[in-house]
Amino acid sequence: MLSDRTHANTNWIEIIGRVKNSYMASKLKESAGDRYKSRCVDSVEWEAAEHINKLELRLSEQKDVEKNLWKSLDRMTKMRDNADKAHLLIHNENEFLKSLIRKYQLENDAFTGKGNIE
Q1: pTM (2 decimals)?
Q2: Is 31 exposed, middle or buried (0-12, 13-18, 19+ CB in 10 A)?
Q3: pLDDT for residue 115 is more than 60
Q4: How many domains does one find in the chain?
């Protein structure tokens, strides 16, 4: 019963792998590990390396957002261009239909065209 309560309503989140250290972060962690081995436990290098990893992760997320924004902008530009083309086609078709109607009206007008009077 206890196991049922502890695992009930558990929200599993996506598993995130270990962050790959950059060159600078790995060197700082190596230095911190060497200090730990020599009993200098208070290590600022390790904290600096973790901070570098967080900043690099944030930078990569910002680059992803920027890339998606550019894709979105390209998509919106294409949609706008397609809408402009469609608007131009509709405008041209309307002008053509108006000219046909004018031509039909003039040809069938009793005063200016052939009309119904013979």
Answers
A1: 0.42
A2: middle
A3: no
A4: 1
